Amino acid sequence: MTHDIFLFLTTFLASGVEAVEALTIVLAVGVVRGWRSTLIGVGAAALVLAVIVAVLGPALALIPIGTLRLVVGALLLVFGLQWLRKAILRSSGYKALHDESAAFKEDQEAAASASTVERAGMDWYSFTIAFKGVLLEGLEVVFIVITFGATQGRLPLAAAAAVAAVLVVVGIGLAVRGPLERVPENTIKFAVGLLLTSFGIFWGGEGAGVEWPGSDLAILAILAFLSAVSALLVWQLRRQRHAALPAGAGA
Amino acid sequence: MKHIRAFGAFWWNFIVGDDWRVAAGVAIGLGLTALLSHRGIAAWWVLPATVAVVLVVSLRRATRDTAE
Fold it and tell me: What is the pLDDT of residue A226?
């Protein structure tokens, strides 16, 4: 049950935050250049992502569980640490926070200045940008859905969480008719990084032969430990950054 | 050839990311865990400790590069 809750939460949050970024790209192109080709690009990318999940998900389930946990644990650890590292750098001010409003304006300007290439009634610029945006943002989600789903034998639950997050983000996007600027992206990415890394440690350890003290409850202890380490690092890096600023610059 | 290189670069960037030392640290941590476990030594602490060390080292490098 604890695994299911964490699985749903991790997939939902990761999918939500990636969907926000994809929505910004799609809205910028759609508003400036029209919706038909843009939406066909979105549909094509969604189809490719669904096929990857449908093919790779069941294929992974055929691998022996010990090997699967070792490989998935290693991948989740590397992947989760990427998210966590960036979130710590953003929280401590060493890396700029992602600004959806600025990204929306940049994408709109690029879409407006690009030449129109129409063939077979399609604006290929709109199609390509929407397709690439959704596919690249979606690949991370697919990776999480497949690894979590296959390792726990709960692929439908992981896929449902991802679809639910995309529907929520698109629904809110349609309601506000613009990019979602107020979503606390860094906080969500911080949480996803912590969850991915915690599961990576747990499954990677099991795959390598570890017997966790407390069994499944060890995940909560790992999560608490990682949260404490991350909070300490943010605090330390903020101090380091303020100490490096010239006198009066931080006022 | 150019496309194969671009394809490889995409997956390297997707999985390994900005700092290859993170992936190397994870591989060493998992290897050490497997080695200790198969010798019957409790190794549950290795991966959490590895992750903490890897984070500290990688962030120190990233912030030092930013400061320079």
Answer: 96
